[in-house]
Write a structure and sequence with these properties.
The protein is mostly beta strands and about 70 residues long. The protein is about 0% helix and about 50% strand. About 5% of the residues are buried.
Length: about 70
């Protein structure tokens, strides 16, 4: 997946993160990224889109966004 938005991750606007994820039968799921960052998501558009809400339990930060398969 490509991450983009309000920050430039690198010259190609992409980044690679290592983590784990689970997907439930109803298309919802959770990603866990380094630093105990979590993204709770729902998959839509036949698997082409992912909408998420992210939490950082130690810093109190909440983010949201979407990812679209290119």
């Amino acid at each position: 997946m490509n991450f983009g938005g309000g920050i430039i991750l690198n010259a190609s606007w992409s980044a690679t993160f290592t983590g784990t994820y689970t997907v439930n039968a109803n298309g919802t799921g959770t990603m866990t990224l380094p630093g105990d960052h979590r993204r709770h998501f729902v998959i839509g558009d036949g698997g082409r889109q992912l909408k998420y809400v992210g939490t950082d339990p130690t810093g109190g930060i909440v983010v949201g966004g979407s990812m679209v398969k290119q």
